[in-house]
Amino acid sequence: MFLIYCPYCEEERAEEEFHASGEAHIVRPTDPESLSDEAWGDYVFFRKNPRGNHHELWQHTTGCRKFFYMTRDTATYEIKEIYKVGEQPKVATAPAVPNKYDQFSSEQAVKK
Amino acid sequence: MQHYSGFGLLKHAMSHHENWQRVWRNPTPKKSYDVVIVGGGGHGLATAYYLAKEFGITNVAVIEKGYLGGGNTARNTTIVRSNYLWDESAFLYEHAMKLWEGLSQDLNYNVMFSQRGVLNLGHTLQDMRDISRRVNANRLNGIDGEMLDAQQVKEIVPDMDCSANRRYPVMGASWQPRGGVARHDAVAWGFARGADALGVDLIQQCAVEGFEIEDGTVTGVKTTQYGTIKAGKVGCVVAGNSGVLADMAGLRLPLESHPLQALVSEPIKPILDTVVMSNHVHGYVSQSDKGDLVIGAGIDGYNGYGQRGSYPTIEHTVSAILELFPIFSRVRMNRQWGGIVDTTPDACPLISKTEIENLYFNCGWGTGGFKATPGSGHVFAASLAKGEMHELAKPFSIDRFNTGALIDEHGAAGVAH
User: Fold this and answer.
1) What is the pLDDT of residues B371-395, one digit of tens each?
2) Which GO terms describe its molecular function (chain A) (predicted)?
3) Spatial contact of B230 and B32, defined as CB atoms under 8 Å apart
4) B107 belongs to a structural domain
5) Of A105, B26, B245, B397, which sits most exposed with the smallest number of CB within 10 A?
6) Same domain for B173 and B263?
7) What is the CATH number of the domain that holds B172?
8) Are the Cβ atoms of B244 and A72 closer than 8 angstroms?
């Protein structure tokens, strides 16, 4: 059971108000016409699945309905940080094989 | 291997059951094996068993980081059925069903496979249309299935509230009489005992922490306890931890690991002699031989490896069960737990080679792997033995997520596995 701080409502609310939308920082291909089947497959279906810190996209579905990001440990379930769309994570993810077709991975986001 | 029989039971009664042989050895691994199976759950042990028995490959090790059958094999709701919509999955699960039907004899171990029938309820007109489509598809594929109306459902489960004035009235169901439940632990133990007797080394309390890969070919696994163990081929059957293992090999898989919860009630007198599942209100329930109601919940929406889930998920499931069985409202729940399931985008498994030569993955069974245990082990063993994927396993290649040849079982199997 999570208590999640919504960065827009600026309140801690129960998990039931939120929807987990999976891996964060997946960038839509900039040149879809030239994309190979492998790159499309990777973009649509293949996800990081780390045991440890994971950058996630969440939505406050029964609240303000806005999307925000969370870095959460998938083994201990501890929420490490919450940040708004447009902001960058401060905590790095656990090692996971990156999408080799992706121009912007969340590891790069932390380095910046 | 000591053969189990009624006579043996009598004989050992004379010596107060103190002289039973150990069920399997606890060997120190050799330096090298023809095949190393990573993961000693039901699917991994079944793979090892069929490798040794059907394909004559006995120089096999199963490496398990905990104890045998201690992961999802011990955590599922033990339902066995094969009424899947699409041909590819129907053939695979029916293959498993046929093996289930002879499994106790084959293993000389009572897996308590009880074909008490499985009901998949429909609560809306669309549910009934989907059920009709699925039952017809099943029958065309030679899988037993019947459409039942509310009255017929009521006759099978008299204690379920099938009245028309419920919020989600039971309008009918699909009925697979050959479906049922099996004793989950016994399945793991039976396969382990059978594999051990044929010479397979079962290595427990030893985690794999990496792969030896030379020129794109896997040559062994690095372990915590015994250093590097060389292997001709490596088969990974680690369910929820498949993503972690794939990362060690530098592979990406179309998988996300989620907690899936289940719970059991206090033991009560026999009240439910079949399996009731409902996609629409989302719950499934059966009664074990001990008398406790075994209830399965859905997955939690977030990724997790913690083997526990959130309370709202349980609350949702229990309210669904009460919608069907108001009579259970005073039953107290005894235990609740979570397992980590590796879900694929199309709710079908991955039984596949990888871009690394001789490294195979059998994973992605998501919320419904238990029912496939013997079939999964059999086709995976055949694939490992021949170096070429078994006919039934071919459609379940990782490549389908690049080619687009998905087997979308969400509609038919969906949430309630």
Assistant:
1) 999 999 999 999 999 999 999 999 9
2) sarcosine oxidase activity
3) yes
4) no
5) B26
6) yes
7) 3.30.9.10
8) no
Task: Kindly indicate the confidence band of residue A103, based on its pLDDT and cuts at 50, 70 and 90.
Answer: low
Instruction: Looking at the structure, tell me whether residues B353 and B363 fall in a common domain.
Output: yes
* pLDDT tens-digit readout, B76-110: 999 999 999 999 999 999 999 999 999 999 999 99
Domain that holds residue B131: 114-179+256-343
Residue B184 DSSP label: H
List CB contacts of B68: < 8 A, sequence separation 6 or more: B40, B41, B45, B188, B189, B192, B202, B204
Radius of gyration of chain B (CA): 21
Say if residues B142 and B94 touch (Cβ distance below 8 Å): yes
Q: Domain for residue B138, yes or no?
A: yes
Are B404 and A44 in contact by the 8 Å Cβ rule? The answer is: no
Residue at which a domain ends, from B296, B318, B343: B343
Instruction: Kindly list the residues from chain A whose CB atom is less than 8 angstroms away from the CB atom of residue B404.
Output: 37, 41
Instruction: List chain A residues with CB under 8 Å of B302.
Output: 20, 56, 72, 74
Is B247 in CB contact (< 8 Å) with chain A?
yes
Q: Which amino acid makes up residue B408?
A: D
**Averaged confidence pLDDT in chain B:** 95
Q: Residue B3 falls within a domain, yes or no?
A: no
Query: Is the CB of residue B312 less than 8 Å away from at least one CB of chain A?
Result: yes
Inspect the interface and report whether the beta carbons of A37 and B403 lie closer than 8 Å: yes
Give this prediction's pTM. Answer: 0.94
Would you call B147 helix, strand, or coil by DSSP?
strand
- B281 and B153 within one domain: yes
Number of Cα atoms under 13 Å in the Cβ half of residue B415: 18
Q: Where are the domains of chain A?
A: 1-27+48-94
Which of A15, A17, A74 would you mutate first to test chain B, the one with the most B CBs within 10 A?
A: A74
Check pLDDT > 70 for residue B232. yes
Residues of A near B (Cβ–Cβ under 8 Å) read: 1-2, 14-16, 19-20, 22, 37-38, 40-42, 44-51, 54, 56, 72, 74-77, 95-97, 99
- Say yes or no: B192 and B130 in one domain: no
Give the CATH number of domain A1-27+48-94: 3.30.2270.10
Contact B401 A41 (CB under 8 A): yes
CATH of the domain at B239: 3.50.50.60
* Alpha helix (H) residue ranges in B223-310: 242-249
Q: Do B401 and A46 touch (CB under 8 A)?
A: yes
Q: Determine, for residues B247 and A97 on separate chains, whether the beta-carbon distance falls below 8 Å.
A: yes
Asked if residue B15 belongs to a domain, the reply is no
Residue at a domain's end among B327, B343, B359:
B343
Q: Which residues from chain A sit within 8 angstroms of residue B213, using beta carbons?
A: none
One domain for residues B246 and B350: yes
Q: Where are the beta strands (DSSP E) in B25-161?
A: 32-38, 60-63, 79-80, 118-122, 146-149
How many angstroms separate the CA of residue B221 from the nearest CA in chain A? 19
Q: Do B256 and A72 touch (CB under 8 A)?
A: no
Residue among B137, B43, B147 at smallest CA distance from B90:
B137
Contact B402 A19 (CB under 8 A): no
Task: Compare all CA atoms of chain A with the CA of B313 and give the residue at the minimum distance.
Answer: A16
